[in-house]
Amino acid sequence: MKEILISQLVNILVAIPIAFIVLRILFKKSILLNIGIIFAVNLILVSFVGIWQSAGYTNKLVSFVIIAILTIISVVLIANMVKKPLQNAIKKVVLISEGRLDIKFDKDKSQNEIGILNNSLSDLSTRLLSIISDIYINADNLVVASQQFGSASQQMSQGASEQALSAEEVSSSMEEMIAYFDLSNNKQSFVGKKQFENKKVK
Q1: Distance between CA atoms of residues 86 and 94, nearest Å
Q2: Residue 79: inside a domain
Q3: Would you call 125 exposed, middle or buried from its count of C-beta atoms within 10 A (0-12, 13-18, 19+)?
Q4: Total domain count for the chain?
Q5: Is residue 52 part of a domain?
Q6: What letter does residue 101 receive in the DSSP assignment?
Q7: How far apart are CA 159 and CA 147, in angstroms?
Q8: 90-112 confidence digits (pLDDT tens)
Q9: Per-residue pLDDT at 75
Q10: Distance in angstroms (rounded) separating the CA atoms of residues 52 and 162
Q11: Is the pLDDT confidence value at 183 over 70?
């Protein structure tokens, strides 16, 4: 019996590192690596408890309690590993969708998918806030430029009115001069005819 237990312990001590290496190769920095490790360790320990019970070292009730405790611990660890970061990501998405971009989000230190998602949401919030700030600044600049353009347009309109008035005055003066010259020419012509007629009469 002791030989079976010793061989099973050796198998466990060999199986855990092999499982870790295989999972590390398959999942690298993924959250599935941690879940796989917890699942593999739970599976190995549960099988060891089963073998221990079949060897007669524990009864079925104790084995069942140990297996239930190991399974509950594994489920709680996996739930905490996945649930909390996902809830954090959901909270960030909800805040961003409500337009609350001024809230600072803590960076997630983990390099798995959920950590990358949380960090990307934080970066998205920061970039959106920056873009909206730029839009406000450009809108203010546009308002100022529009006011300046309106003022310049009003000055140009006033200058054009003044020029039109000056042109009208020049035109009126020209008409007066032409009328004066016409009157002068008519007088000279009339005086010249009278003198000519007076010379003829003599």
Answers
A1: 12
A2: yes
A3: buried
A4: 1
A5: yes
A6: -
A7: 18
A8: 888 888 888 877 777 777 777 78
A9: 92
A10: 109
A11: no
